[in-house]
Structure formats: structure tokens, C-alpha cells
Amino acid sequence: ITFQRKGLPLGTMGWPFFGETNEFLKLGPNFMKRQTIRYGRIFKSHILGSPTIVSMDPELNRYILLNEAKGLIPGYPKSMLDILGQRNIAAVYGSQHKFLRKSLMSIIGASMVKDRLLPRIDKYMRLHLSNWDAMVIDVQQKCNDMAFLIGFTQIVEAELSSIYDGFKVEFDKLVTGSLSLPINLPGTSYYRGFKGRENVVKILRRLIEKRRAASPATTYDDMLEHLVRDGALNDEEVIDQVITILYSGYETVSTTSMMVVKYLHDNQQALEELREEHFAIRRRKGAGEPVDWADYKSMRFTRAVVLETLRLATVINGLLRKATQDIVLNGFLIPKGWKIYVYTREINYDPILYPEPLKFNPWRWLDKKLESHNHCLLFGGGGRLCPGKELGIATVSTFLHYFVTTYRWEEIGGEKIVEFPRVEAPNGYHIRVLKL
Ligand code: HEM
Fold it and tell me: Does residue 392 have its Cβ closer than 6 Å to ligand 1?
């Protein structure tokens, strides 16, 4: 039932300008829990520069994601939109969003993973993991490099080695800037983020010109070529699509991979079962034969491990939306322009959906119904359900395939992994690796 209540949800707005950002960042999930106890599962606040309604209500969260057309568009912070570009998919809605999304699906969707992307993931994953024997490695750093390498080779394979290092440095500035406060003064991350974007754009423009000028006989086979030859997008759109793809598949894939290594280390029984699944694949194949789509589809336990990792680590805390007009949700009035934080973290620890929620238990996902459950929002939902879902899972799965069939490892020990606002190991996560 929807009935008009008194207006805004309960809650506190904190200090002028800063609002409650400080408490939110410091207390993290506990701030959310405290406010919920005081004010209910839908409360108002002022965080990250905007008046915001926080929703921890699973039904309402789902409703918001499914009803973008009612005026609930993405509401990511200004710094992110500025630095990711005007034609970034999170900056558009309605027919423009449909148009960009269709183009995106045609290059990163599941059928592309099957035919075109998986062979390249396999090739570069093997290369990346080839020389870890008898080394102490920082898993966080290696997973960061891995996620970027895999994303970048899909986009520009031919020019890879000549531009990789320079491009990554600039792209990392862009990423940091997109998550910073929008203060445009020399020395700030935001300012550096813009410089990073400028340089990224410069490099991409050069590549696009080169591709356009190439004779048809020169064949490239990568996403940039697909985007340029397809002709549906102009150069600005091609550039922002490339940035979108690299950005969205970067921290998500790298954090998930690091946490998988952590959880498998702590849960030897899961590691044994996972190894067995991958050795079974190796036994079916010749030495050095790449992992293909049928192999990927057979990795049932691996998929369960990846989903359990996304859940338990909460790689993504929530999604941001913005009301384009006054809108009534659950009887509350959400004023035009307010942000809505669709906070999904707590769903991950719901003891009814996930009994013993703090336990790493990949077996729970072997019941397929859990993944398609209405409240499983690990990859979002509705019209913005992650288009890179299979690509992301396939990347982490291929990483695991080569990692667990080639190596065993032990922790150096004692290193902290923080879970909020981002999952991160402040001093790295070091392990000693040995060939099996
Ligand atoms: C484990 C890996 C991943 C996770 C957990 C993840 C999660 C998500 C989530 C929750 C959303 C919804 C955002 C929203 O509604 O505001 C999303 C959207 C998106 N993801 Fe992923 N993602 C992953 C990997 C990838 C990869 C590998 C790519 C591309 C290479 C990708 C590309 C995108 C794009 C472009 C969107 C925006 C879609 C739209 O606005 O229509 N993701 N992802």
C-alpha cells in the first residue's frame, strides 16, 4: 500500500555542506546500522555532497532499480561523471542509455565472451601468472595488474606493448580522481584525475585515427576496431565507451580476485574442491590447450566461489540514484534532485537468504535459485544489470584456473584487509607462492 505520509523520511542531516559524510566514512556499515535502528530502513541523511535518502529495504531497493523510467536515474557523484565523460553510460538515461547499452552488449555480452574474449583472457592470464614460482607476491598488486591487463588487451591488442605502461599510469590517475572530492585546484586528486583523463583521451584519439587511416587489408581484431568499424558511435562516444569498459571491469575484478585468494586460503576444503574441478578440466585437455566456453560453463563450483566472495566481501556496497522529479516511495516524499543510496550491503548478510551469513560457504550457491533470487543484487538489477557479468566471472574463473592448478601458497601473515568504503589491503596482501 502506498499512502502519503508526512513527507521526508526521518533522519539527520549533520553539518552544513559536509553533512554526515565524515561519520559515514568513519563508521561505515555501523553508521548505516545505527541510523536504521533509530529511524527505520529508509532514512534521510546528507552524504558525499548531497541530501540523500538511504534505502536498506530490499523490496524498495529492487523497485528503484527496476523503475528508472519513473525518474530514478543514476546519481553518481559529480567528480565521477566529470572524469568519466559526458557520454559515459552512467551519465545518460532513457533512449540514449538504450543506445549506448546496445552497443556495449555487442562487444562485452556473453556471446562475445564465448567466441572472442575468452581466448584472449586465457592467453594473457597464462602470461601474467607464468613466473610466480618461488616468489613473494602482493596479491593486491598482481590482481590490479591482472584486471587492467585483461581489460586493456581486449580493447587494443595490437598496440599493447608500446603504450601499456604509460596508459595505465594515466588511467590510474583518472580512477583516483573519479572517487575524490570535486575540488579543481592543482595538487588535488580531482585535478590530477582530469589530467589523467586528458592524456587517456589523447592516446585513444591517436589510436582511433590510426585505425581509421589503416588500409582495409590491415586487420585488427579487438574492441576498439569493432567500435571504430561499426560506425554507429562518434569518436567521443567511442572514447567514453572504452573508458567505461576499462573502469567498470577494473576494481571489481581485481578486488574479487584478491578476496578469492584470501577466502580460499582460509577455507582449505573449498580450495580442495575447487582444485579438483580445475584438474578435471585439465585432464580432459592437452597440455597448454586453452580454456574454452564449455570448460567455463562446467565450472559450477568455481562460479559458486566467485559469487560467495562477492557476497561475503561486499565488493559493492550499494548503487546511487537521483530523483528527476518529486516522487513518492513507500509513502515517503523524495524531493526532486535528492540522491537515493540503494544500499545493498546488508542484504548480503541476511540470515534468511544466507544462513550463517558470516561463513564462507560457496556450496550454498550450488542451488541455482539463489543466483536468480529477487534480492540477489550483486550485479545490480533492472535495465542496468551489469552487462559485464559473464565477462567478470569468466575473468576471475580463468585466473583461478591457472592459479590453483599451477601453484600452492602461504600467507606471509598479519596483513589487514579493510572492508569499507572499499575492500582494500592498505599495506598489500603478501603470499609466498610455490609450484605445485
Ligand atoms: C565481479 C565483477 C563485477 C561486478 C561485481 C559488477 C557489478 C556491477 C553492478 C552492481 C552494476 C550496476 C550499477 C548501477 O546500477 O548503478 C554494474 C554495472 C555495470 N558494469 Fe559491472 N560488475 C562487474 C564486472 C564488470 C565488467 C568486467 C565490466 C566490463 C568490462 C562491467 C561493466 C559494467 C557497466 C558498463 C555497467 C553499467 C551498465 C549500465 O549503466 O547500463 N562490469 N556492474
Answer: yes
Q: How far apart are CA 29 and CA 346, in angstroms?
A: 8
- The burial class, CB within 10 Å (0-12 / 13-18 / 19+), for 182 is middle
In this predicted complex, what is the ipTM? Answer: 0.99
- Nearest-atom index, ligand 1, CA of 379: 10
Query: Which residue among 97, 144, 241, 252 has the greatest number of ligand 1 atoms within 8 angstroms of its CB, and so is best to mutate?
Result: 252
Atom 40 (ligand 1) nearest CA: 384
**382/2 Cα distance (integer angstroms):** 22
Within a domain: 416: yes
Q: Is any ligand 1 atom within 6 A of the Cβ of residue 64?
A: no
Domain with 64 in it: 21-435
* 3-class secondary-structure state, position 245: helix
Q: Is 101 in the pocket of ligand 1 (CB under 6 A)?
A: yes
pLDDT digits (tens, 9 = 90+) for 320-379: 999 999 999 999 999 999 999 999 999 999 999 999 999 999 999 999 889 999 999 999
Domain count for the chain, please give it.
Answer: 1
Q: Flag whether 5 is in a domain.
A: no
pTM over cut 0.90: yes
Report the CATH number at residue 276.
Answer: 1.10.630.10
